[in-house]
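Trying the structure run again after the queue cleared.
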Amino acid sequence: MKVRVTKVFTFDMAHALYGYDGPCKNIHGHTYRLHVTVAGKINDTPEHPEQGLVVDFGKIKDITQRHILSEFDHALVLHKEAPYTKDSFLPDNFEKVILLNVQPSCENLMMHFRSLLLGALPTEVELVKLKLEETPTSYAEWCIED
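Done. Tokens:
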């Protein structure tokens, strides 16, 4: 029987939706909450330091910090085809500008984060759900069952 465990992370990031017909076309920021859910079997090996755990929450924290938060926290994320990314103003004046091949929407960011986590998690667990809250009332969610 598998059990799911979730670790929640908070980070701040700015983005703009290139070509969008609304206020989100402008550079603006959010305080995001990322829920990372993995599933696995509870370790029942006697004398094992992780007995009783699916995975140490610290492992999920370290992996998420290394692969997502260290790059995206306090970054500006833009679509690489946006015309304002073509000159040197942004990279010359800001340390953390990330250009993606896709629109940096909540949905696309969440799927990008999924791809970053998939190969990095311990083999004893499986990534089964991600939830990325862009605002307190708006979020995108991916579930392995879908």
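The chain is about 25% helix and 35% strand. Worth checking whether this holds up in the mutant runs.
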